[in-house]
Amino acid sequence: MASYVVTGSNRGIGLAFIRNLSANPNNTSKLKNVHVLQADITDVPALREAAKEVERVAGGALDVLINNGAYLALDRGDFTLDAYDGKEDLLDKDFTDFFKVNTLGVIKTINVFLPLLRKASEKSLAKVITISTGASDLEFTVNAGFWWFAPYATSKSATNMVMAKYAAAHKQENILFLSISPGAVNSANAPPNEVEATFGPMIKVFQSGYPEWNVKDSGAFISQYGDKAWL
């Protein structure tokens, strides 16, 4: 029976992971092996307490860590970077808030759970999956002119590099590190009309970059299709 830790599983993508993983009889049976733990991914002491509980219920090892927890505020999502000129207090706040959760939170989470992943890797391939976004892809950003959510996209780009650094540092170990973009997902649970009003123009830009829209290497950054089709 494989063991999973999914951060940010109270709604959206994380909750969908829990529902699908728990439906697999090889993992759980009727949710009886789903354990809900509370921990802020920026709070290392809380993460260590969660890891202790995971160690207890999972038999001392962890097969898969899914870094899904993230921060995305819609405030100033339409700011270009030069729009912060004269608003340096907001610039500092936005980039600090996004990097604290999306980048440093991932590092802290991986570091805390790495001993359990190493234990699992003694028997089979352990996996660390981080949910990223196509908005963090440099080539797409330039080619499609995707300027929205600069602090969020920048923090996620940094996190892609974080995953590559872990992959490089642990290349000789039986642990896979991978960043994956899930595509267009209504993780806010908002009505379709609100999603269209907020994200419609951005989705059109994504489609312009990938008009055809209708995991092999550790450290890679790929879409849900295994390539760079971000939707």
TrEMBL record:
InterPro entries: NAD(P)-bd_dom_sf, SDR_enzymes, SDR_fam. Gene3D superfamilies: NAD(P)-binding Rossmann-like Domain (3.40.50.720). It holds the Pfam family adh_short. This is NAD(P)-binding protein. It comes from Somion occarium.
